[in-house]
Amino acid sequence: MELKAYLAQRRELVDEALERLLPADEAGGDILKAMRYSLFAGGKRLRPILCLAGAEAVGGRPEQVMFCACALEMIHTYSLIHDDLPAMDDDDLRRGLPTCHKKFGEGLAVLAGDGLLTQAMVLLSDPAQYADREPLRVLAAGQAVMRAAGFQGMVGGQAVDLASQNQEPDLATVQYMHALKTGALITAAVQSGAILAGGDEEQVNHLVRYGRRVGLAFQIADDLLDREGDQAKLGKATHADEKHGKMTYPAVVGAVQARKIGWDLVNQAAELARELGPAADPLAELARYIMERTH
């Protein structure tokens, strides 16, 4: 499998769907412009691609779960907008462009994030998007995604992140924080795709185990890129974690050990994917990509 081509093709599918689901409209005013500015500022579209791959791994098709994939990207983008705010990480650049609050002001940036999160909920509950799906599966997938976005997931992890700044590095805290802040939504991506595509309980649980490993590895890779990455490729400032006194894997165990842990996790995830058969080959390749990426 040629991963680069797979990612490009899936990214194009997601971008086309996002354009349909959140089209430009002059009547939408500055709030819609701000939402679209961040949503279409680039990005890997990893979470929606994992949702599509999770569906394919259990015999489904991308179009069956695209509404959920797009909701995941909206949630992820909202989190980036809020993460960049002065009250959080106070970043000026995101994906090589001025952050939303630098472009539109802090107030509208907060509302743009709120708007994207709410629009994700609209998508997850819109009968027009899932008319031919089993209602209980739609509900279960939506619950998995929104729980992962809330205080039991991403929001809760961000709260731990704020509380642990400038504290003595602690491995248990870092593991817990990353599992919520980053791992929960990535896990929900493959989980929701499998649920919507008709995966059975064993398949879904298998992909949850995959997602937890990939999610943690993704954050470890991000921590390493902040220390060692190329600012031009990343499209944002490096060494921000150290500047803000953040608790990270490299800060706790060192860069060498953090990289080893990350590779151990993605290798375990790849093996879990392979156990599901050839349909899950993209998930195996995506796992390795998590640690290989340069941005």
Report on this structure:
With 295 residues, this protein is an all-alpha fold. The chain has a single domain (3-292), classed as Farnesyl Diphosphate Synthase, CATH 1.10.600. The protein is built from 15 helices and two strands. It has a two-stranded antiparallel ribbon with strand order 1-2. The radius of gyration is 18 Å and the shape is globular.
Give keywords:
single chain; 295 residues; mainly alpha; Farnesyl Diphosphate Synthase; two-stranded antiparallel sheet; 15 helices; 2 strands; 72% helix; globular
Summarize the entry for a quick read.
The protein is an all-alpha fold and 295 residues long. The chain has one domain: Farnesyl Diphosphate Synthase. It has 15 helices and two strands.
Helix and strand arrangement:
Blueprint: H1 3-21, H2 29-39, H3 46-57, H4 62-83, E1 93-94, E2 97-98, H5 100-104, H6 106-124, H7 135-149, H8 154-163, H9 171-196, H10 201-228, H11 231-234, H12 240-243, H13 249-253, H14 255-274, H15 281-292
Antiparallel strand pairs: 1-2
